[in-house]
Each structure stands twice: as structure tokens, then as C-alpha cells.
Specification:
2 copies of one chain form a homodimer. Chain A is built from 16 helices and 9 strands. The first copy, chain A, has 338 residues and is of the alpha/beta class. At the A-B interface, α1, α2, α5, α6 and α9 of A face α1, α2, α5, α6 and α9 of B.
Chain lengths: 338, 338
Amino acid sequence: MSNETQQPSPEHFFETANAYQRSAALKAAVELDIFTAIGEGRADAASVAAACGASERGVRILCDYLVVIGFLTKEGGRYGLTRDSAVFLDRRSPAYMGGTLEFLLSPTLMSGFEDLAAAVRRGGTVVPDGGTVSEENPVWVKFARAMAPMMVPAALEIARLAGGPAGRRLKVLDIAAGHGVFGVTIARQNPSAEVVALDWPAVLEVARENAEAAGVSDRWSAIEGDAFAADFGSGYDVILLTNFLHHFDPPTCETLLRKVRAALADGGVAVTLEFVPNEDRVSPPIPAAFSLMMLGGTPGGDAYTYPELERMFSNAGFSRSELHRLPASPQTLVVSHK
Amino acid sequence: MSNETQQPSPEHFFETANAYQRSAALKAAVELDIFTAIGEGRADAASVAAACGASERGVRILCDYLVVIGFLTKEGGRYGLTRDSAVFLDRRSPAYMGGTLEFLLSPTLMSGFEDLAAAVRRGGTVVPDGGTVSEENPVWVKFARAMAPMMVPAALEIARLAGGPAGRRLKVLDIAAGHGVFGVTIARQNPSAEVVALDWPAVLEVARENAEAAGVSDRWSAIEGDAFAADFGSGYDVILLTNFLHHFDPPTCETLLRKVRAALADGGVAVTLEFVPNEDRVSPPIPAAFSLMMLGGTPGGDAYTYPELERMFSNAGFSRSELHRLPASPQTLVVSHK
């Protein structure tokens, strides 16, 4: 926003109109591995271009643009990584998340924004078959492969909150498990935890790989299918609902939550990970903006406020819910007691 | 950019990955005329939805997003326009520029960013036939129809600088005239000015309409064709090069500038309107970022610094150039003397 004390200016309009180029520039830089090349000490366009197999002119223009949008520094003509780019975009960093663009900028997700006016008219996605929630949509395999790194901090916090002390027997159901990282992390932290992951078969292959890589496959099993149709079994101490409810409207969520409650043992909890905006629905920016992602990509999904989530759980028979803010994450945990 | 004194955060990465949604939301809001509906006093999602022929749910989510990205306000659940949105996005405002999105977000312009990594590898557009500079590309008709409102402040300044006092005879050539607003504005300000507009035939129709609407068609004529091939004639006092040089590499620009110089009368000037970044090439943000638009959309175009432009004019035989910053515009004027 331009400063309201200055003259009117179309600059913010112009920058927002062209904002799609920011996504494209970040994607190109990750695909070419520009950040790693600079992190390794290459500081001028010619050296970066040689390392990345690109033209010097193209690298110079791209890197200058990345300085403008805050991903690189430039001092005396030499490029450097910002602190955040070094942590998240240099492939050698353990917190590297460049791979998440495979999902975030997949044609499937982006297609929901090709005619957003039509989605606003309708009040839901205009992508055929319900957009991203269509049956066995292969974008969720991409999600499972790409998004695990972004989930690690939340997974550790869930394990801390709901994974019980190491050695306490625990039966966990991970609904729409995706990469499976949430259940797998509990199994790693608590050697007496058993985890059942539910998802479509092609997605479960990724979760199974992650369970094997973590050395917990002897305590890991799978249920193939749709969360609304599959038989959950029963007696779970913890049921995980991570980034799942936002795809559906409240009545659909409540239908699922009744089924979740029925599958919990006495004293069991549902743990929900969500983008939870404040009640004004316009803050904080990332959870508030997530609502538009659901308008573009789903028939009835939304970013729900905490009172809305609490009401859904209450309507489904849960006795009480608690909010847990996650440090260093735009997401929030809700723990709901049977 | 997150504050470097805080913990590392992927928020800027996440917001930039999703930045394409900002462009889409602005486009949807303009297409649905949301800003006008709110400017007329509708303040809740239901009333705006009724006025715009859209769903309340869709409008609520879109308007909340527009608050997050700085185009609307929200107080006590009621939406309002920001000062800049009232000036530039309410259709009833004389400075309305919502229509510029027809060009800025045209499939032709955006196609240059579908595989930006490939353009960085090559050092120029990968869109067939040279992208936006392909012969008679119909995007320039769209440009001519859409972009005139954004050009008015610069056109007035050009007329003030180079249009001569009213009554002084002046022969003006407007190269790649587009909407023709630059030449037409000189003709309006100086009743003794004669303007020749050069562009492809389909584009010239738009310029001709604008000349007629301004009541200057008796002093307005046209040359159909390509600026590199057409016969300019000679004896011009002023030759306008507005938003044209950035499409080409320096040798191509110099070839054109020699031709421009030859068509000028003694004492004549070339007036160039451009995005001119500082020599660091990363400031100010809008001119610096414009370079990427040229990488995505043209074989060899760029946003040139003032020393680069000065050198091109000098190499083409011009005696000297002067820089004129435009108030309230991201663009700059360069006046070059034969």
C-alpha cells in the first residue's frame, strides 16, 4: 500500500497486477538452483549462469528481480543470499523447501485461479469434478512428495502435544495422511505408538516410503480409500486431521467429525492442523489469504476461524477443544476431546 | 522480507509462491466491478454480491483477500475503498485504470512467464516468433485500447516539455503510437502542432479514434507499418519513442535511433519514455522489475539505465541527452537533441 499521506499512486495496483511474475521468478530460480549456486559462493551473473546452465543475461535479470522482491542481496554488483533464502532455498540446507513449489505451483492448484471471477460468481471452484478434492486427484501424490519438509515443525509439535511420553501405548489414526510425516513423527518419538495412515493408494505409497525411511514400518499400517467412505476401525487414542477440514463446508466437516469421534477410545483426542484466521477474517495475512485458495480450488472449503472449528467439533459431540498456536508457523493446532 | 533479527521464517517464500493469486484476485474484482459497488456505498458481502451478480460467499472471501493485500479496508465487518482504490479502481473515477488489466494480464503477456526458467536459460523469450514483438501481434491493439488511461500524466508532461508554446508550428512523429495519446495530447495543447502516428494498421484504428475524440484529426495523419521498415518522411521537430526501446537489444535500438535522427529537422529532439532503473539495476522497484517482463516476453529487450540510453543515443549521432523524472509515475523521460 502506498502511504496514504502521499499523492494517489497506481504503483500498488501495477505491482499487484504483475504479482504473478513473482511466483514465476521464484519457481524459475528454484528450478535452475540459483540459490544453491549463490550459497556456494558464486556472486556474479556469469559464474551463477555457468553453474546453472543458463545464459548470463537471463541470470542477471532474474537475480536483479530476486533482489527487488527480497530473496537476494546485491552489494557492489555481487549477489548474496538473504538469511531466509540461505535457510529455505539453498538445496544444501536441512530446511530446504524449494521442492514444495512442485505442489504449490502445480497446474492443478493454479488452474483454480484462471477464471477466479467465475468462482466468485458461483461461490466455489469452477474446475471440473470439484477441483482439488476430486477422487484420487494425482495432485495429492505431488503434495505428499513435495510438502513434507514444510510440515516438520508442526509434526514435532503435534508429537510433543499428543504423542504421549515415550513408552506409553498409543493407537494413532492419520486421516488423509499424505506424506505420512505427522503419524511417522509420533511413531519415531514414541516407540510404543502404532500408526494407521489413511489415504488413496497412490498417496499411501509415499507415506509408506517415509515410514520405512524412519524405521517405524513395523508399527505402521494403512487403510486405503476415502476418509468419508473408509472403515476407520476403532479404539484410537489420537486421530490426526491435518490440513483436511479446510477442503469442505461445515456440514461435511461435521459429518466426518462424528465418524472421527466414534472411532476414538474414551479419553481420545482429535488433533487438527489448520490455517486459522482471526475472527476479522483478514489477519494474520497467511491464514486469512488461505481462504481464497479454497474458493479457487474447492466447491465449499474455507479457512475456518477458531470459533467455527470449535462449533463443528461441539456439534459433532466432542466435549471441548483447545487452541495451540504453533511458533514459527502460519498454522494452528486444535486439540478436541471426545 | 521477514525481519532479519527474528527467527528464520518461510512466510515470505510462501507468500511469493502464491503471489499469482494476487493478480488473479485483482483481475476478478475488476471484472466483477467490486470496487465500484463498494465505492457506491455497499459495505457488506451480501449487498456487494447482489450488485455484482455474484455469490455472497465468493464475494466475502474475495473482499477479505483484497483487505489482506491492501486494496480494501474492513472495519466492524464493513468493507470500504482505500484512497488509491477509490482513485484508480472505482469505474466512476476519471483516473480509473481497471481496464489496463485487459493488457497487463492478457494471455499473450502472461505466456512469457509459463516457463521462465527456459527464458533464463536462453536469455530471452521462449514464446514463438519473438513473443510480444512478433509482427502485427494483436496484443498491441489490446494495449492501445487498455493502456491510454495510465499514460495521461506522462503525456501531459511530454506536451509541456516538447510540445512548444501554443501556436508554435511543430511537426511530430509518434513512433509505435499505440493509443496515440502522446501525440494527440501535444496536438490538443498546441493548435499549430501536426502529428504523424506510426503503427500497425489495426493499432492505428484505435489512435485514429482517439485523435477524432480529441478533435485533432485535421492535424493528425498516419503511417502504417513497422518502425524499422517504414519511411518516416523528414523534417520532424519532435519524434516520440514511448515505451518502445525496451523491446529491443542495444544494437537494434541504435539502428532505429540513427533512422530517427535522420528524420529530425535541425534542432529537433527525440523524446523517450521508459522504465529507467538506477545503475544498481535493483531500484526503484517498478523500473527495476520491468526488466523481467522483457526477459519473459521479448528476445532481447531490457529496462535500460540512463547511462545505457545516453550511450545508445550518442552512438546514433545525437549531440546530447537530458533526463527528466516524472512526478507520480514509475517512468522517466529522456530528451535527446539532434
